[in-house]
Design goal:
This protein is mainly α and about 100 residues long. This is ATP synthase protein I.
């Protein structure tokens, strides 16, 4: 049974999920700038820099939320971990066994 504690928990959960979505969006935009065999080095550099930027953005966004927003920590972290877990488990769920 799922119950809503209050509106602050819902907003905190949205912020936690939003941090993950924003960071992964930035990573995806950095990672897929180049394509093709001739730009293999650029692909590796962009992938690595996108991952570094994603981690830094996660740290910065959590720091901003901790310092300036009155967010509840339990739903904030729980929603972030739930979205992270669904991202990790997505390839397992979509395996096609024919």
């Amino acid at each position: 049974m799922v119950t809503i504690i209050n509106v602050h928990w819902g907003i905190s959960a949205l912020i936690g999920g939003g941090i993950f979505i924003i960071a992964n969006g930035v990573f995806a935009s950095c990672s897929f700038l180049f394509s093709g065999a001739r730009s293999a080095k650029l692909i590796v550099v962009c992938f690595f820099s996108g991952e570094v930027l994603k981690i830094l953005l996660i740290v910065v966004l959590f720091s901003v939320v901790y310092l300036y927003a009155e967010a509840e920590l339990i739903p904030l972290k729980l929603a972030y971990l739930l979205v992270l877990g669904s991202n990790i488990l997505a390839p397992v769920l979509f395996i096609n066994d024919k």
